[in-house]
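Ligand: cytidine-5'-monophosphate. Inputs:
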Amino acid sequence: MGRSITVTAPAKLNLALAVMGKRPDGYHDLLSVFATLDLADDVRVARHRTLEVRNTLDIGGGEDLAARAVRELASEIGREPQAFVRIRKRIPIAAGLGGGSSDAAAVLRALATLWEVEADLVAVAARVGSDVPFFVAGGPVALVSGRGEVVTALPAPREPLHLVVLRPPVRLRTAEVFGELRPGEMGHSEHVSALAGAFRDGTVTAETLREHGWNDLLAPAERRCEAIATWRATAAARGIALSLTGSGPTLFAAADDRRDALRIARILRRAGLRGHPQIAAA
Ligand code: C5P
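Predicted complex:
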């Protein structure tokens, strides 16, 4: 099989997200602050005679974004889509954590090195999926707009962000949540802009994250998925604000530091909600 390259593929959170409007192609334009999480998959890519993707988790039906990444890069440079990809999965699937998109971005980065190509990976990434350009760009924090293809890096905070991440055990399809969105629920870009500004100024704190952790997809996600509303109400009754990432169902709480994250996770666990302390934007 010869030389192989292994790349870390981190999960992401949308720390704030606004839906700016529906596009003629059926997708929506977004404005969102993305940050990577310390939770990550490992992706190994090697030369191969065919296209083969192995995954340590069953990713279910639907198109495999990692295979699509190989095909899109191959077609960009006029090569056969031949590669062996092995994904060691840790990021939960269909959670709003961008796992599949991050794996696809890792494939693009590793293949570009392996094949020694100088293609515009962000443009190729946009053809693979809406969240893939952020991961290909490689920064820990970015302001993302358009369908996801416009990525502007933001400075990482001086100290990594401590969060508690919770995943209600339900399946929620992205298209379903966008379909439920009402016109009056869109366009709350002021929170996204304020948060991006705080990253630029280096003034982001847990309080900033709580104040601007807005997501236009929260209301439609709550209507489609009762667990999201119930979990948020349970946490709120204990003084903990939970924000939604992406189209859900994953939720997160901002913490002051590691100790505070452990405290929040403990309070939530006593209320029957299992959350994991994690670090973002490191
Ligand atoms: O990007 P992905 O294929 O995961 O999106 C799934 C569905 O979510 C799309 O078919 C579309 O209905 C919706 N979507 C959207 N606008 C985006 C991203 C996703 O409308 N920016």
